[in-house]
Amino acid sequence: MPDPLLIPRSLFHKEGHGSSHTHPHDDPPLERRASGTREIQVVRKVLAANDIMAANNRRLFADKRVCVINLMSSPGSGKTTTLEKTLARLMPELSCAVIVGDIATTNDADRLAASGAPVVQVNTDQFGGDCHLAAHVIERAASGIDLDQVDLLIVENIGNLVCPAEFDIGEDARAVVLSVTEGEDKPLKYPLMFRVCDAALLNKIDLLPYLDYDAPLAVANIHQVHPDMPVFELSARTGEGMEPWLDWLRGLVRKKLA
Ligand SMILES: Nc1nc2c(ncn2[C@@H]2O[C@H](COP(=O)(O)OP(=O)(O)OP(=O)(O)O)[C@@H](O)[C@H]2O)c(=O)[nH]1
Ligand SMILES: [Mg+2]
Description:
Blueprint: E1 5-6, H1 30-34, H2 36-63, E2 67-73, H3 79-90, E3 96-102, H4 107-113, E4 119-123, H5 135-142, E5 152-156, E6 173-179, H6 186-189, H7 191-196, E7 199-203, H8 215-225, E8 231-233, H9 242-257
Parallel strand pairs: 1-4, 2-5, 2-6, 3-4, 3-5, 6-7, 7-8
Helix pairs in contact: 2-5
The chain binds guanosine-5'-triphosphate and magnesium ion (MG).
Guanosine-5'-triphosphate is lined by residues 73, 75-81, 108, 159, 203-204, 206-207, 235-237.
């Protein structure tokens, strides 16, 4: 089993951006506090800088013919468990690698490395505790992977249903995991996440017999925010319902390699 690679702190010192912390809602600089107009400008500047880095990543991934998926959700929805099952079922048919973001610990990387896939763990507490993975972080983390050997790079973003939706990382597609213990209304309460994604996974359906949960209502709420988005109802624990999700991933890779 390969050891997951923990990217050292020094790799995340950004050149030319001042603070390495890039969240648009961070404590504002003084001039931002002074003027509402300037505040908007600062937020736009952070996102514009990220967009440039994301475009660079997209070019790199296109050159390397790597399909990149950004997997997002609130903490504990089952991203890592879904990836454990996904890697076990897709490899060696597809050559996969993972970048996983957490504020702290290498727990998820340790779990995912058991698949045999190259895994890079990013810990954001080393550079300000960001609650999302920004494009420049993905660029540095990807430099720790031999992309020539990879068909599918899956990014497990930091558990957060808000901030990761705002940051393009140069991915080909985005997917959000919503588990049945979170409530049917989350797509309506956190619409941006569901709007920017290309697919949703409704996870932990093995728990439905024990819950008062209206799965059709959850799907309807997802479609209210993002009409026609594919929704895969599955259990990462039992493996039930995994195949349509795996087929969706296979289709994305085929499209990228065509
Ligand atoms: N019953 C059930 N439990 C699940 C399922 N998927 C994940 N879990 C459990 O949910 C908990 C969180 O799962 P993770 O896969 O670590 O969730 P995560 O989204 O990666 O969490 P963070 O990375 O911390 O945001 C664990 O105890 C899993 O065993 C599922 O399909 N059914
Ligand atoms: Mg995880």
